[in-house]
Structure formats: C-alpha cells, structure tokens
Amino acid sequence: MVKSVLFVCLGNICRSPLAEAAFSREARRLGLDVDIDSAGTGTWHIGHPPDSRASAVAARNGVDIAHLRARQVTADDFRRFDYIVALDAENLTDLRRMRPADGKAELSLLLDHVEGRVGQAVADPYYGGEEHFDVTWSDVTEGAKGLARRIAGR
Ligand code: 4NP
Question: 10-residue block means of pLDDT along the chain (154 residues)?
Fold first, then answer.
C-alpha cells in the first residue's frame, strides 16, 4: 500500500523542503512507493520558493528543490497523510493543537526516527549562516533514512 508523508516546519522554506528532498531520495533508494509533501505552520512564506540557502545546500548535495512552493498545513492534511513529521517540538505542539477529531495521521518528530536522537529538534537555520544549512541537511538526511527504513519495515 502506498504510504504518504508530510514534513512540517515553521516557514516551509528551509527545513521541511530539505526533509522532503532527503526523504524522496531515500525512498527512491529503497524502492518505496510514497507520496511526499511538506508544509509550514506559519503563513509568512505561503507561495514562496525555498530560501536560497536551502536551495543551495540541496544543490550541493545533488538535489533540486527550487521548484517547490511553500504552503500552510491544513486540517485536511491530517486525513490525507499517514505520517505527519514535525521538524521541531514547537511544530509538533502546533500540529497536536490543530489536529481534527477525525485526523488519522501519526505525528512524530523527524529525529524520533534516529536511534539516540529521540525528542531532538532539527534546529531552525533561518537566522544562521550557510554552515547552519549544512547541519540541517545532515540532520534531515539522518532522519529521512531512519523514517524510510521504518516505513519499509527494515
Ligand atoms: P523553516 O525556517 O521553518 O525551516 O522554513 C524558517 C523560515 C522562516 C521563518 C522562520 C523559520 N520566519 O520567521 O520567517
């Protein structure tokens, strides 16, 4: 059965598009059939492309994310997606608050899927420098690998 995964951060222009890209690559590598998307809890960047520093780190790692556009999480996402994966604890709290009664999605933190990193956040790189985006890429890649293995049942 095709599974669906939504990655959620605050702006949907830095961390969650990178998580989406890293997870897409990992799913392809494992031959997983999954629907993948990302969204933000905030409204500021709706319709915007990823932050140029996020696009740059993705490009440095061989992935193009420049075509993505930010959107906000909706109540329907909780019915549509099997997994909604938050990038930090604040995102997770916001998601729990907005979850509709008939929402079926399983909520988690991305790094919950990494041994030894349960409960950890993928830090917000927005006010940081280029080097923070390298840490973001490394974190989302680790999380994506763990999540993909879990969904694949390996
Ligand atoms: P993201 O990063 O949640 O990883 O997309 C941010 C993007 C924008 C803002 C904060 C974080 N902002 O305050 O506009």
Answer: 95 98 97 97 98 98 97 98 98 98 98 98 95 97 98 89
Q: Choose which residue among 55, 124, 127, 137 to substitute to test ligand 1 binding: the one with the highest number of ligand atoms within 8 A of its C-beta.
A: 124
Global pTM exceeds 0.85? yes
Distance (angstroms) between ligand 1 centre and the Cα of 32 equals 29
Active-site amino acid positions: 9, 15, 124
CATH number of the domain bearing residue 28:
3.40.50.2300
Per DSSP, helices labelled H in the chain are 15-30, 52-60, 77-80, 89-98, 130-152
Task: Give the number of domains in the chain.
Answer: 1
Structural domain including 36 reads 3-152
